[in-house]
Every structure is written in C-alpha cells, then in structure tokens.
Amino acid sequence: MQNETMANLDSRVTIHMAASLDGFIARKDGSVEWLETSDEFAGGDTMDPGFVEAFLKTIDCYVMGSRMYETALRFEAQGLGWAYGDKPTFVLTSRELPRARDTVEFYSGDLAQFVNGRLRATFRSIWFVGGGAVSADCLRLGLADEVRYSILPILIGDGIPFFDKLDRDIALHLAEVKAYKSGTVELLYEVRGHLSE
Ligand SMILES: NC(=O)c1ccc[n+]([C@@H]2O[C@H](COP(=O)([O-])OP(=O)(O)OC[C@H]3O[C@@H](n4cnc5c(N)ncnc54)[C@H](OP(=O)(O)O)[C@@H]3O)[C@@H](O)[C@H]2O)c1
C-alpha cells in the first residue's frame, strides 16, 4: 500500500479523456470547440441517454487540474452547464480560484497522499477528468487503475497532449472497445503497472 494511510482496496481511479486521433485534448490556447465532430459510422452504437445517466451515477467523485476547472467555469458561463452533477469535485490548485458551487473543494499538495489517503478511503469510483498535466501526474505516480480514452474522428495537428511526458513505459490491458455512430471510439485500458517495477 502506498503511503501510511488506509486505502479502500475496492476503490478505482479512472482517467477519462476525449482526444483527437493525434492525441490532443485541447488546442494550445485551451480551446475545445473541435470536440463537436460530425462523422457518421454506420456500424456504430448509439449512446443511450438512459445508460449514460445510470453510468454517471456510479461515479463517486471527480478530480481535475486548475486549468480544466477554468474551462469548466467558462462552459458554465456560456450556458453549457456543469458536467459533474452534484458529485464532490476536487480541484488541484495552488491559486485562489472562485468556488463554482458547494460541491467544489480545492486541494494543493502531494497528489499520491491525497488520492491514496483521502479519496480512496472515502470514495469507490474516483474519476480524473484532466487536463493533461494532472493525467500525467496520476500515471507517473502509479495512481490510476484504468484509462478511458475516447478518440474523436478528427486530427488537429498540435495542442495540449492527453498526458505530458512520462518517465517510464506503462503496460496496459485492453478491457473494452466500443465504436459509436458518431465516429468516436471508446477504449478502456486497465493499468498493469510501470514496466521497470
Ligand atoms: N478533451 C478533453 O477530454 C479534456 C479534458 C480535460 C481538459 N481538457 C483541456 O485541457 C486543458 C487543461 O489541461 P492542462 O494540462 O493545461 O492543465 P490541468 O491538468 O487542467 O491543470 C494543471 C494545473 O493544476 C494545478 N495542479 C496540478 N496538480 C496540483 C497539485 N498537486 N497541487 C496544487 N496544484 C496542482 C497547477 O496549477 P496552479 O497551481 O497554478 O493552479 C497545474 O498547473 C484545458 O484547455 C481543458 O479544456 C480537455
């Protein structure tokens, strides 16, 4: 077990991100308007809103970096809503940022201690929703159990990568693949561990 604190062995840390086929989660300036793609794949599944709603209920809390949070605040200001429902949402930041709602809590400090000591002790399904800097930290520190990667039918050439540079290879196990009518492919990989361990 990492750290001295008790971790809930049933808990699961998921990194979820949507990215272009060339592996970017946003343009360099942080914009994500290209996430609205318009492909059609005849053989694909359709997202059932009832299934999505039931699935979202299984998520117990969200974790995000401050720049992702700033994007979420922008979306809300534009009337696009808050994607995290009434679930506790932990924002990693060393700055003073506006608190969008009561469910938002800020944290600054040791990420491994926070996840293994605090979040795993309280929550079962813990979702990291970006951005790239925080996803990389999560993988680098060996905190993630699985990676859900939605690949969108678009190439954008340059931008913020899904995760920043890693210092080691990480072996994965492909657990699920789904292709949707929208041309998006969703991959679920379980993290098998750092190869040098
Ligand atoms: N396509 C998608 O699915 C998707 C998903 C998520 C995000 N995005 C996009 O990705 C972009 C943001 O990604 P990013 O890689 O630039 O940034 P990010 O991962 O959202 O945020 C990184 C920042 O979080 C703060 N932070 C991280 N760990 C911390 C810790 N342990 N303690 C205290 N503060 C900590 C630091 O900022 P401070 O301390 O200075 O606050 C750090 O610079 C946005 O443009 C967003 O729209 C896209």
Write a short abstract of this structure.
The chain is an alpha/beta fold. The protein has four helices and ten strands.
| Amount of helix | 10-25%
Largest sheet: 8 strands, mixed
The small-molecule ligands in this entry are: NADP nicotinamide-adenine-dinucleotide phosphate
List segments where confidence is low: pLDDT < 50 over at least 5 consecutive residues: 1-5
Could you explain the architecture of this structure?
- It is a single chain.
- This protein has helices at 49-57, 66-77, 111-122, 132-140, and strands spanning 12-20, 24-26, 61-65, 89-92, 104-107, 125-128, 146-152, 160-161, 170-179, 185-194.
- Strands 5-4-3-6-1-7-10-9 form an 8-stranded mixed β-sheet.
- The longest helix has 12 residues, at 66-77.
- The chain is built from 4 helices and 10 strands; from the N terminus they run ββαβαββαβαββββ.
- Strand 9 (170-179) and strand 10 (185-194) form a beta hairpin.
- It is 21% helix and 29% strand.
- The chain is an alpha/beta fold and 197 residues long.
- Mean pLDDT is 93; it is low at 1-5.
- 24% of the residues are buried.
- Bound molecules: NADP nicotinamide-adenine-dinucleotide phosphate.
- The site of NADP nicotinamide-adenine-dinucleotide phosphate has 27 residues, from strand 1, strand 2, helix 2 and helix 4.
What are the salient characteristics of this protein?
197 residues; alpha/beta; two-stranded antiparallel sheet; 4 helices; 29% strand; globular; disordered N terminus; binds NADP nicotinamide-adenine-dinucleotide phosphate
